[in-house]
């Protein structure tokens, strides 16, 4: 520090004795460090990679989307990309369903999840950061009570195709049994009709992870003589576990994770 002071004094003294006009550029310039900021394109690529990890089930359990990906997830969920991905899943499922030779006993089943599979909760998640907030069970229950969730359009078409082909349709949801009436009302209002079973969590099912709960319910189906030929869900916990279907179809959902 002392050497710097001496240097400055010497510089000023030299300038004062000089016959040339004062030039501020002769003084030592301050050191300015510039750190490169992550570009919007880099963030988009990182968030696309993160979403791929979600859909491929490569990520560990997570509670909220990354803060840096808030706008990315919002844009995806409200834009054409999400609709195209949903349509792709439904189209492939329909092709498979039409290829199945059903048994004469009428016990071939297609299992559907409800939330983000048949019914869209986007109006709710639009008010809660598209997954940026930690899931609030009480707040979501208030939304469910409204019975206003719209249909996932491509899933409604698949549902109608599956029924027209002769599959039994079982709806297997993580919603609670005490939400049955509002769930039935919402499904009917959204266009879903004539399902064969609507299975909700009973009192003995609360506290179980979704993978365990849904595996147990599928096992009960098989014990009753049903064959699970197809299964559609937005969570891997809808599809994995015991008594998996012959083919499973994963709908996109980067907003939340249910183990």
In short:
With 259 residues, this protein is of the alpha/beta class. The protein contains ten helices and five strands; from the N terminus they run H-H-H-H-E-H-H-H-E-H-E-H-E-H-E.
> Would you identify the regions where 5 or more consecutive residues have pLDDT less than 50?
1-20
- The share of residues in extended strands comes to 5-15%
Question: What is the radius of gyration?
Answer: 29 Å
- What is the strand arrangement across the widest sheet? 3-2-1-4-5
Q: What is the residue-averaged pLDDT?
A: 90
| C-alpha end-to-end distance | 59 Å
Q: Bin the helical content.
A: 40-55%
How many beta strands in the DSSP annotation?
Answer: 5
Shape label: globular
Can you give a write-up of this model?
The protein is α/β, with parallel strands linked by helices and 259 residues long. It has ten helices and five strands. A five-stranded parallel beta sheet has the order 3-2-1-4-5, with helices on both faces. Strand 2 (168-176), helix 8 (180-190) and strand 3 form a beta-alpha-beta unit. Helix 4 packs parallel to helix 7. The longest helix is centred in the middle third of the chain and has 20 residues, at 80-99. The protein is globular and about 60 Å long. The protein starts with a helix and ends in a 9-residue tail after the last strand.
Fold blueprint:
Layout: H1 2-17, H2 40-55, H3 70-78, H4 80-99, E1 108-112, H5 122-126, H6 137-146, H7 153-165, E2 168-176, H8 180-190, E3 197-201, H9 210-223, E4 227-233, H10 236-239, E5 247-250
Parallel strand pairs: 1-2, 1-4, 2-3, 4-5
Helix pairs in contact: 4-7
């Amino acid at each position: 520090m002392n050497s710097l002071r001496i240097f400055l004094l010497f510089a000023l003294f030299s300038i004062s004795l000089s016959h040339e006009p004062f030039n501020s550029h002769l003084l030592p310039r301050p050191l300015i460090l510039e750190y490169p900021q992550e570009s919007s394109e880099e963030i988009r690529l990182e968030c696309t990679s993160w979403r791929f990890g979600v859909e491929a089930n490569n990520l560990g359990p997570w509670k909220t989307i990354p803060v840096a990906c808030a706008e990315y997830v919002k844009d995806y969920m409200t834009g054409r990309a999400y609709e195209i991905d949903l349509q792709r899943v439904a189209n492939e499922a329909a092709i498979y369903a039409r290829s199945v030779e059903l048994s004469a006993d009428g016990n071939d089943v297609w299992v559907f999840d409800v939330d983000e599979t048949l019914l869209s909760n986007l109006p709710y998640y639009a008010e809660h950061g598209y997954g940026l907030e930690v899931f609030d069970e009480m707040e979501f229950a208030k939304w469910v009570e409204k019975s206003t969730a719209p249909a996932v359009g491509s899933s409604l078409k698949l549902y109608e195709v599956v029924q027209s082909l002769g599959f039994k349709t079982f709806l297997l949801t993580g919603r609670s049994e005490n939400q049955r009436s509002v769930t039935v009302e919402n499904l009917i209002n959204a266009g879903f009709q004539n399902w064969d079973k609507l299975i909700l969590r009973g009192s003995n099912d609360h506290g179980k992870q979704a993978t365990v709960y849904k595996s147990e319910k599928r096992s009960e189906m098989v014990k009753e003589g049903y064959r699970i030929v197809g299964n559609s869900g937005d969570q891997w916990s809808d599809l994995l576990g015991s008594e998996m279907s012959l083919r499973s179809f994963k709908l996109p959902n980067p907003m939340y994770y249910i183990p």
